[in-house]
Amino acid sequence: SLGLVGSEMCIRDRRDAAAHRRWWLVREPHAQRFLGWRAVPMSLSASLLLALSCTPTRFDLQECETTPECRTAFGLGYTCGAEGLCELEPVPDRCLTTEPADLWERPGDYPDVIVIGSLYDHGQDQAELAAVQLPFKQVNDEGGLREQSFALVSCDYAEDDSYDGLSSDEAAIANAEYLISQLGVQVILGPASSSKVEEVYLATQDELPLIISSNATSPALTDLDGTEKSDEDPGTVWRTAPSDVFQGRIIGVDLSLRSVAKVGVIYSDDSYGGSLTAVAMANFTGVSEQWAFSSPTGLTEALVDALADPEIEELLFISSDIDEIIAFLNAAAGASNLNGRGIFLADGAADQQLINGTKDEVKDLFPLIRGTRPQVPTGPVYESFSTSYTATFSELQPSDSIFTAYAYDASWLGIYGATWAINKDDEVTGKAAGGGLRRVSSGEELELRPSSWARAKELLNSGEGFDVVGASGNLDFDPETEEADSSIEVWAINPPGTDFVVCLTFDWVDGNPKPAGPQNAICVPDEEEEAE
After folding, report:
1. C-alpha separations of 482 from 113, 436, 456, 467, 468 in Å
2. pTM of the model
3. Distance CA 440, CA 438 (A)
4. Total Cβ atoms within 10 A of residue 108
């Protein structure tokens, strides 16, 4: 048997020997997967013989009481088994995507790696996932941290029966628990929705990892990790996208400026939908009728009820799920009594999937659609990111999602936070990494580029901070809320129905929204132009 395994299975180091003391790993494509290998129990004597046949070094079995002991002794993926011995656990199919790409295949090539995790829907969030991966390629090309490299383990929370039958919320929690308990991850990038951020935070209270979302915008997240935050007691929920306190105000203001008298609000019954609706309607001068939904049937019934009210002049649909947004537009296109009423959507709709994924009949509704989103980034740092992104991921474009630049910045912030924690405490904890993020909004200005990594390390190592300019803009986090603001754009779909155009941009002056210029003529209905 040992001869059949031969050179392909020869143990490269002590970590590999530990992995194989209880299992043969036999390549068998159609068996239960561990990166293309099937785990077959083997005797202890055979495992020792295999180890001795490949290395002249004596190897002692590692007894353990806790999983961290095994990670320290043998590396990533090792846990303390029921028999009190360290063993290599199979990687869940949801978490096979890594950067470097061969992290699971060749763990011995990455000793003492600093592991950060990510939680995204790998189908819906491809653009953001790519943006999160890019900094790990760049930071390792620039030398990593001391003798250590950084690694990303990306877990997919898509609701897909080919995995395990879990709902997306259940999968997000299960993935987070795997990253923390099995891999010792203390910095998590994502999830891409406010409700999932809340679910993951509540499920990981015992460990309190640092969570950095690029997409979650619900105002309910501001105080999720406490109302009092300081350098000594930083928060552990951060986001690069602006809170919907900003977007919600602009939704209400825009509806009011256009003299909409009554709006029908249909919103997802979660922290994102409920809080954004509350902010928007608090800033709306007209009257609203509201319907919350929590299922596809509830969405359809809400639309039917809203269209039955002839006084409703515009429909405001609020959901962070692009599939729900597409379902709403498909249903609206089939309604006989829409009667040219306007449709207002939020930031989650400003996605190329909306244009490409709806029925052909929806294209007739495109002139009626208007929405809000954080301002699309511009400037040299964004251009540097965009160039690297398109060069690395040829099938994707940064414009595929409004949140790609925010995801890129979140990934670099995770690396900065981990670096600060290691320099401060020689280990990464969520609290320590959160303390590092409180050091990126003042001091020497530093553009978030790979070439600035050496200077960032120097400043973090000395206990100093810096004022980072990210691909998404200036990341000026308020020390009290640990959140950054952003200009908000009102958008529409261009006449060919192929892309989004900016109607109006709102900046903030003394805390109040102010239009940055006149409205784009493309966004002004013909009757308004005639009236002017």
Report:
1. 28, 12, 20, 14, 14
2. 0.81
3. 6
4. 15
Nearest alpha-carbon partner for 294 in 275, 267, 312: 267
- By percentage, how much of the chain surpasses pLDDT 90? 74
How far apart, in whole angstroms, are the C-alpha atoms of residue 468 and residue 422? 20
Query: How far apart are the C-alpha atoms of 270 and 327, rounded to whole Å?
Result: 18
CA distances from 401 to 87, 342, 373, 532 (A): 41, 24, 11, 35
CA distance 35 to 106: 11
Return the closest-CA partner of residue 131 out of 42, 11, 49, 240: 240
Sheet architecture: strand order including 237-239: 97-99, 150-156, 114-120, 187-189, 210-213, 237-239
State mean pLDDT over 284-289.
98
Rounded to the nearest 5°, which phi and psi values hold at 278? -60, -45
Distance CA 35, CA 302 (A): 45
CB 380 within 8 A of CB 388: no
Residue 240 has pLDDT above 90, yes or no: yes
Ordered alpha helix ranges (H), 23-167:
44-54, 67-74, 126-141
Asked if 469 contacts 447 with a C-beta cutoff of 8 angstroms, the reply is yes
Does residue 292 register a pLDDT over 80?
A: yes
Q: What is the C-alpha to C-alpha distance for residues 325 and 345, in angstroms, rounded to an integer? A: 8
The Cα 80–Cα 77 span in angstroms is 10
Please give the angle made by the CA atoms of 468, 470 and 475, to the nearest 5 degrees.
Answer: 60
Task: Name the helix (H) or strand (E) containing 296.
Answer: helix 296-307
Which segment of 32-46, 369-383, 396-410 scores lowest on mean pLDDT?
A: 32-46
Over residues 327-351, the mean pLDDT reads 95
* Each residue's pLDDT tens digit, 429-458: 999 999 999 999 999 999 999 999 999 999
**Helices 244-257 and 271-282 meet at what angle, rounded to 10?**
40
C-alpha angle with apex 44: 38 to 50, nearest 5 degrees? Answer: 70
The pLDDT of residue 526: 59
* Residue count of the chain: 532
β-sheet bridge partners, residue 41: 23
